[in-house]
Structure formats: C-alpha cells, structure tokens
Specification:
The chain is mostly beta strands and about 120 residues long. The chain contains no helices and eleven strands.
Length: about 120
C-alpha cells in the first residue's frame, strides 16, 4: 500500500512561486504525477516523473513554468511552480502508479492518491 501526503500549498500573488511536496511511503512505484482540480472542473494532468530514470512530462499549460523532481533519499516528489497565474488556482493532488510510463496522463491510470493541497493565486 502506498501512502502519499502533499504539502506546500497556499495563497500567492500572480507571478509568484510555490513548491509542493509529496512524501511517499509504502511500495516503490514507477510513476508519480501531479494533477489539479479547480471548482466545477474535471481533474487535469499537470506533470509526471518516472521514479527510476527521472524522465518527465508536462501539460502544455504549465510547461516552462513548473518543474517536477524527486529526491530518492527522502522518497519525496516536488512540484516547483513559477510565474503562477490565477488560472493555476486549484486543489493539487499527488498520484502514483506501480508501472512506469510517460503517457500516463489520465487520472484513471493512477491507483494511489494523496489528500490534496490547495493552491490559490490572486490577481
């Protein structure tokens, strides 16, 4: 069983930065991802990282502004967010699956989820 605990959300002004953390425990997994869900909208893919090799994938809406990384020693995945926009406001979720792959951009592909952390970007 994998447990994921997110932290690092908060309120920030447009143009600001935040770093989200996802502390993982349990089984070693192949792919970690971040998704987000704004009120009234479906959960959408943000970014993913392959635990073993570190390869990454990003949604077009965040590419160039967000960076996903992992610290194997700490069993933690990070999402560094720069140049935040009001449209980035959402609950951000960490997700994991046991197999590795750069094309797992759908929420249904992930069996393990964190509780979510709120990110609010004011204009």
């Amino acid at each position: 069983q994998v447990q994921l605990v997110e932290s690092g959300g908060g309120l920030v002004q447009a143009g600001g930065s935040l770093r989200l953390s996802c502390a993982a425990s349990g089984l070693t997994v192949g792919t970690y991802a971040w998704f987000r869900q704004a009120p009234g909208k479906e959960r959408e893919f943000v970014s993913l990282i392959l635990w073993s090799g570190g390869s990454t994938n990003y949604a077009d809406s965040v590419r160039g502004r967000f960076t996903i990384s992992r610290d194997k020693a700490k069993n933690t995945v990070y999402l560094q967010m720069y140049s935040l926009k009001p449209e980035d406001t959402a609950v951000y979720y960490c997700a994991a699956r046991t197999s590795a792959g750069l094309t797992y951009v759908y929420a249904s592909a992930y069996a393990y989820w964190g509780q979510g952390t709120q990110v609010t970007v004011s204009s």
